[in-house]
């Protein structure tokens, strides 16, 4: 599995270990692997040769979880490095004879999409054309984003953004991990795409109240100016504000039953995630 130290990966490592599954994590350094406490191999998405060597050390690999960090700020007009990295991993998996790639994508990928949406679209197309059997998970935004700062930004004790009254069906990363575990260890899922959400769609005002924060809905121009003042590239800021406006318009409000369908249990609510310690 890749992305073992991220929001999904750390849950998946524990879930697979608890189930007694035979798995290994691909990590960039031995120190990261030791910290995980599971079998690991060292490799780097930016070094395709290291991926080939990692597959060779592991021997036959039945399934590969493909997951890595999403969109990052890049100079305006520059390509997202995630496409090159994940496509290279797919090529290495094909060369190694991997039985299936389970890809963590994003909700609503589309050609030329903003932030990671265009990148995930390109990667999905490459995976489907690779000849390697595949499964795709498209999760909504993670509840964990509110503890990492990626769900918005907090200033003076308030959640601030261009959110309006739009609802978002945030999902717990642990539930995404549970869905991935099903696809990695079971027989179902080949050639399937699953859209993963929580079981409720909340406004950001409601989320702020649950977090014990105030809420400030600000105009897009004001939000963009503040983000640029923090040093983020103008193009990245424009894409981020577009995402907020899409949320405000209800673009992420759909609630699906995919988590329950795959795992046999309902996904956690935002309140249940808070009660569990926000991990």
Automatic annotation (TrEMBL):
SUPFAM superfamilies: NAD(P)-binding Rossmann-fold domains
Domain (NAD(P)-binding) ranges: 3-184
Domain of life the protein comes from: Bacteria
PANTHER family found in the cross-reference section: PRESTALK A DIFFERENTIATION PROTEIN A (PTHR43162:SF1), PTHR43162
Protein name in UniProt: NAD(P)H-binding protein
Source species taxonomy: Bacteria, Bacillati, Actinomycetota, Actinomycetes, Kitasatosporales
């Amino acid at each position: 599995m890749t992305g073992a130290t991220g929001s999904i990966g750390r849950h998946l490592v524990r879930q697979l270990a608890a189930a007694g599954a035979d798995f290994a994590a691909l990590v960039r350094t031995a120190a990261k692997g030791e910290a995980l406490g599971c079998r690991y191999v060292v490799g780097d998405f930016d070094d395709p040769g290291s991926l080939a060597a990692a597959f060779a050390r592991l021997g036959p690999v039945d399934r590969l979880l493909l997951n890595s960090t999403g969109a990052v700020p890049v100079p305006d007009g520059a390509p997202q490095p995630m496409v090159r990295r994940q496509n290279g991993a797919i090529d290495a998996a094909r060369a190694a004879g991997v039985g299936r790639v389970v890809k963590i994508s994003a909700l609503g990928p589309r050609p030329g999409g903003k932030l990671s949406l265009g990148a995930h679209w390109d990667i999905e197309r490459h995976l489907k054309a690779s000849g390697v059997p595949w499964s795709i998970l498209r999760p909504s935004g993670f509840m964990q984003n509110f503890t990492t700062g990626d769900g918005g930004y907090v200033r003076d004790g308030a959640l601030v953004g261009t959110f309006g009254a739009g609802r978002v069906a945030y999902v717990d990363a642990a539930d995404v991990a549970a869905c991935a575990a099903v696809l990695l260890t079971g027989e179902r899922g080949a050639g399937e795409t699953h859209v993963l959400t929580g079981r409720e769609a909340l406004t950001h005002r409601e989320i702020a109240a649950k977090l014990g924060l105030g809420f400030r809905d600000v105009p897009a121009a004001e939000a963009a100016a503040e983000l640029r003042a923090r040093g983020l590239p103008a193009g990245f800021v424009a894409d981020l504000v577009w995402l907020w406006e899409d949320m405000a318009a209800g673009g992420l409000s759909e609630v699906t039953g995919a988590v329950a369908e795959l795992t046999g249990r309902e996904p956690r609510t935002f309140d249940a995630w808070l009660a569990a310690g926000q991990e």
